[in-house]
Design goal:
The complex is a heterotrimer of chains A (about 250), B (about 260) and C (about 450). Chain A is an all-alpha fold and about 250 residues long. Chain A is built from seven helices and no strands. In chain A, about 80% of the residues lie in helices and about 0% in strands. Chain B contains eleven helices and ten strands. In chain B, strand 9 and strand 10 form a beta hairpin. In chain B, helix 4 packs parallel to helix 7, helix 5 crosses helix 7 and helix 7 packs parallel to helix 8. A three-stranded antiparallel beta sheet of chain C has the order 2-1-3. In chain C, helix 4 crosses helix 5 and helix 17 packs antiparallel against helix 18. Helices cover about 60% and strands about 5% of the residues of chain C. Classes of the chains: A mainly alpha (about 250), B alpha/beta (about 260), C mainly alpha (about 450). The interface between B and C is medium-sized, with 28 and 20 residues.
Amino acid sequence: MHDQHIASAFDRDLEAIQARIMKMGGLVETAILDAAQSLVDRDEEAAEKVRAGDKAIDALEELINEESARLIALRSPTAIDLRLVLSVMKIAGNLERIGDYAKNMAKRTGVLIQMSPIEGTHAALRRMAREVQLMLKDALDAYIRRDADLARDVIQRDRDVDQMYNALFREFLTFMLEDPRNITACMHLHFIAKNNERMGDHVTSIAEQVVYLVSGEKPDDNRPKEDKTSTDISVAPDAARLGANKET
Amino acid sequence: MYDSPKAEAKVDQKEIKIAAEGVQVYYGETHAIKDVDVRIEDKTVTAFIGPSGCGKSTFLRCLNRMNDTIDIARVEGTILLDGEDIYDKRVDPVQLRAKVGMVFQKPNPFPKSIYDNIAYGPRIHGLAKNKADLDEIVERALRRGAIWNEVKDRLHAPGTGLSGGQQQRLCIARAVATEPEVLLMDEPCSALDPIATGQVEELIDELRENYSVVIVTHSMQQAARVSQKTAFFHLGHLVEYGETGQIFTNPQDPRTESYITGRIG
Amino acid sequence: MTDATHPAAAPRPGRASSILEQDARTKKRNAAEARFKIYGIAAIGVGLFFLVVLLFAIVRNGIPAFTQTFIEVEIALPADRLDPDGNRNPEEMKKVSTFGYKPVIEAGLVQAIEAAGIEIPFEDKDDVADILSAAAPAQVRDMVLANPDLVGETVAFRFLASSRVDGYMKGRVTRDSLVRDKNLDAEHLDVADAMAEAGMLERTFNWSFILGADASESRPEQAGIGVAMIGSFFMMLVVLALALPIGVAASIYLEEFAPKNRWTDLIEVNISNLAAVPSIVFGILGLAVFIQIAYLPQSAPLVGGLVLTLMTLPTVIISTRASLKAVPPSIRDAALGVGASKMQATFHHVLPLAMPGILTGTIIGLAQALGETAPLLLIGMVGYIASNYPDGIASGFMDPNSAMPAQIYEWAKRADPAYYERAWGGIIILLLFLMTMNIIAIILRRRFERRW
């Protein structure tokens, strides 16, 4: 892929550290999917597994940071080697946060299982999670292949995730207005949806690191922000449905 | 050199090749090396770093008794090679130097052919029984010196006709031709350009499979790249000696940290 | 802002002066350097001038020595005079001395001259024989004793002309200068001229000057430098065989192995001083040690060689030390690092590299020794006349002989102007010798240096 360093040990070090990132990425992808699936399946054991698995992810991040520090101290990397090490450290940080969000999803799933399910939401959440996981997979692929175009594409896809979050936000508002008994469950579900949206942002950050690694510059700051919920008061519950439900 | 800390723990139980205890070196009245204790491991690259005049080269030259050639130098203390004191009266320095080879700062091939450069050591130590033997020794040494492919067609060309990096690799090949157990290198790359330096460093990494290598360098980055253990010398004292990764990420002695971060000369 | 298109504009503000103008200091300095160059060239010019004058003088004075006047004449060899017994027995014929041959030659010469139609303006016609060298009778006698069958025949001989006649042919001798000369009269010169016209007398290249032996004071025409050359040659052999090994070995020891203490410092200082000792002191030393104490034969090339060895040793030692010092210490370190002992390092590595310098120093020392006269005076190589070729190698060393510079000095001392001319000729030969040695030095140097 790249030219070899004269010191072959340097190449080995760099490959080792990238292998760790890929491993961490795989663990995180699995965590996302498992957390979402456990919600759909209302499987408490699966959720517990995801929570326990986060320890391994945290340990990997620490290891990667240690090894990056060693690499910088011992090899004095420059240019692309330096960007590589720096990007590895940031991506590890991002992955660790994503892992935490997945763990959080699993935690709330554990709580939700004890309440009655709300129609239609779980599948939507799973779709959202799946979308995030695909983004993450593509971002990591872009990293390994040093494919800046794929990375840019991933950045754009965050828009979809944001839109999904908007839709879910409206739906939750609707549910909560419909039936106050839903509020607790909806709050948890909302947090899960928010976590997913945050995960999408972190994946975007990973993709930006890829662009920096390849081109040496940060991508322009036109990261798409479709999340209107924090700014736009016009995100209102679905009045039509509300009205329909009130009558029943 | 990158081995993960966990992996290092496994190989930490290497044999001690050279054990120096209470070594003092005097140049006339000057006390150049003060009370140095160090244990050099086998099949490892050990780097000596430190500012100019700190004594690292002086100590290195004690290890193969090259200081004997300087009249006013006096060495005290014990230096054991595989448990035997190299300053014992029964030891012939000439024989010792076949076991402890040396490579110098400026590449210094003999003004003879490449073949004769390598063959000289084995000849005078009687290591070859006949010409075929000698040819084999020469080829093996040139391969170990990572220079065989470049010179195999011109073994009888003069050694001085090679480039700087090739000459230094030739000198390394010459040093390993006598089948030493330890290789001492006194700033072997300081006269070379970066590419040649990289080639020699890669060679040093390969050499540690078979030899114990001690390298004096004034470049900390080189020590960081090439060695597994590092010793920091300052004003004749051995200040700190430890695993290279740990010295460069978290040294114990503040003097070491000052030197490595570039805060003292 | 300076206008870039006008380079002659005033300098940019902030800079004191324009670099396009030389300031006073620079001009003075340049002038001083130019003067210095002129002085140097003038010095070289003066040196070259003297060199040219010297060479010119040498060549002009010395070249005539290489030619000699010969007289070709047929001499009848009467049997009654030369072989009274009639046996053609050389042992018997030896009883006739050179004195007995003189009349034979005189008669033969008179006959040959009159046969050529040349008038002999002397009362006693035999006087004309003075134009021949005094060596002529001996030459004929040797011929007859070697070939007894020639008795009774008329044989053509090629005689050396007497040195006055030779001088006349070379322009050295004139009729006026002969007025007070006992050996020859102006009439002899007329006969000589006539004989030259008739083709009996000619001036040709004289090999025996180069190859022949020295002769007595009265016979400069016969003198040659050949035997002295052999004497010099044997002396050089002795010097080479002794000074080179001893000097190089001493040097190597002093440079590589000797401890650096007061004694070695003392020795070093003394060696440098020895190089400056007047050479005649070595002559006295040689006389005292080799001749009086060791009873070696006086005037022998062996003794001369020994004395010159003592003289050359300091030169060899000093130049060897300089060559050894010039070998970079990295080579020694490299050899020691590979496990060579000091001796091996020195002989396998340092010495071959120092060879060019050592050889040059040795040959320079040899060339100096070749030209030394003073020490040879005291051991007797000047007083002796080198008149015989040595019989073999042993006698070449042990038989009394002379050396080239000593021979030249001897010739220059003698009264006869013909010897003076030969001294110049000897100088030419000596210079040729030295040039050859220097060329050999250069060739050897090149040969060794290529191995670097």
